Amino acid sequence: MPFTIAIDGPAASGKGTIARALARQFGFAHLDTGLLYRAVGAKRGDPVAAARSLAPEDLARDDLRSAEAGQAASRVAAIPEVRAALVEFQRRFARSEPGAVLDGRDIGTVICPGAELKLYVTASDEIRARRRALELGADEARILAELRERDARDAARDVAPMRPAADALLFDTSEMSIEEAVARAIACAREAGA
Ligand code: CDP
Ligand code: CDP
Question: What is the pTM of this model?
Fold first, then answer.
């Protein structure tokens, strides 16, 4: 039986950093599910058709990390048919041997409710904005407004809203260095049997 780790949380909380480090540590596959929604949001035309025909080359576009791509992703992510089109691929990925780490918004609640370990990663709005602004070389105030708008939309939508699963461990990285956050996540995963 593969071991599945579900990592959810708001924008720029450190999900991806922790997910990549866990995958490396345990030799698991890693899927950044936000990239799927970013790729759908970046495609022209009907987002539902875009989600149904998503291909590996769509995920390789180099403009997907921008704040604009994040906004477009969060708009298409509220469309039920878009989410439905992406479920099977994510669930199949989650069954990768010997294990998989998926990070997103609804992994612990919808995609992998039976995951062996669920983390819900947070950090204060200001700290998340500072980290993302540094990463993108962008203005902090503009990024703060963008993250807040996106988090509000992601938490308020009817289908698969962003929220911690009842059995998720809450992981606030506001005061943690990357090294500390990663070390604690590895300890949680060992405890869960990884
Ligand atoms: O995947 P998510 O959008 O949640 O966040 P990320 O891309 O892992 O992290 C956002 C930024 O914060 C990256 O530049 C990380 O290097 C940085 N970060 C940090 O400074 N301290 C942490 N404890 C975690 C991430
Ligand atoms: O890296 P960051 O946390 O800023 O964003 P992301 O993980 O790349 O996700 C971009 C957007 O995709 C989010 O704001 C959500 O609207 C959407 N998303 C989602 O709805 N469900 C997921 N499992 C992952 C992302």
Answer: 0.98
Q: Is the C-beta atom of 106 inside 6 A of ligand 2?
A: yes
Distance CA 187, CA 105 (A): 22
- pLDDT tens, 20-79? 999 999 999 999 999 999 999 999 999 999 999 999 999 999 999 999 999 999 999 999
pLDDT at 74: 98
User: Which value does ipTM take for this structure?
Assistant: 0.98
Nearest CA to ligand 1 atom 10: 12
| Nearest ligand (C-alpha, residue 173) | 1
Q: Which residue's entry shows tokens 């998720």?
A: 168
For residue 138, what are its two tokens?
């962008």
Answer yes or no: is the C-beta of 41 below 6 A from any ligand 2 atom: no
Radius of gyration of the chain (CA): 16
Contact of 126 with 145, CB cutoff 8 Å: no
Whether 30 is in the pocket of ligand 2, judged by its Cβ within 6 Å, is: no
Expressed in angstroms and rounded, the spacing between residue 1 Cα and the centre of ligand 1 is 30
- Segment holding 30, helix H or strand E: strand 29-32
Which pLDDT score is estimated for 1?
A: 86
Residues that constitute the known binding site for ATP: 9-17
